[in-house]
Every structure is written in C-alpha cells, then in structure tokens.
Amino acid sequence: MGLEQLAALRRQLNRGESSKPVASRSTSSQVEVTREIKQPPKPPRTSANAAARAVTTLQRHFPRALPRSPAPKVPLKVGIVKDALARAASLGLSERDARNGVKLWSRGQRYWTCLIEGDVRVELNALMVNRVDRKECPAIAKPN
Fold it and tell me: What pTM was estimated for this model as a whole?
C-alpha cells in the first residue's frame, strides 16, 4: 500500500466515511477462527540451572547438612556424592543433576572457609562421620 492510499484512507476515517459496508452482528454468519497461539520458546536447559535446582531440592530435604545462606556451610563427608546418587531418584533428581548439585555446593569460598582442621564432617542426615584432616584445610595446606 502506497503513501497516497494511506492518506486517502486516513481522510475517509477522519470524515467518518467507510468504503465498505459493515454488517451487523446479528446478520453475520458464525465464523470459526482457529489461530495458532505462538508461545515464547523455553530457555534451553543449562547444567548450571539444573545444578542450582538440585541444590535447592537437596537443601529442602537435608537442611542440616546443606543449610541455606546466611548460615555457614558445614563440611560434608568424603564420598557424599554416592549418598546423593543413591537418593536422587526418590528426590526426583537425575543422577547427573544430583552430582552437579553436590559439586556446585562444595565449590566456592563459603564452603572452603568451613573446612577447619578437626571440624566434624557430616553425611546427608547430618550425622557425624569423621573429622576434617589437616591436609584438606585450605589455610594450612600449601601446594608443592
């Protein structure tokens, strides 16, 4: 449609004229309109999002072993991933998500600052398992 045609339509609308007669609703026939509703695409599932959701699920089921911030993190037992994998299906997590969730939880400054020599390591039910070794403490252990 050219600019001249648009200008002509605008003049008709301003004058209140219409080039096509409009049928009343009572005389028009029923028309079934089927229109496909386009939904926005879902964001791709990233392992970071899945791992964060897994951490939230683990925190909900094991609040004493995986406390929410601002509470300090507690040292987890060595081999906690095996325990999380054993319970993953009952929690509604895939094995990959459970593994990545535990990895995400045990990374970072907040977890490493809880590793103090002699502190208690806990399993998922927050039962004491063993203690943190001297070689596992980041402040004491120095790479050779």
Answer: 0.62
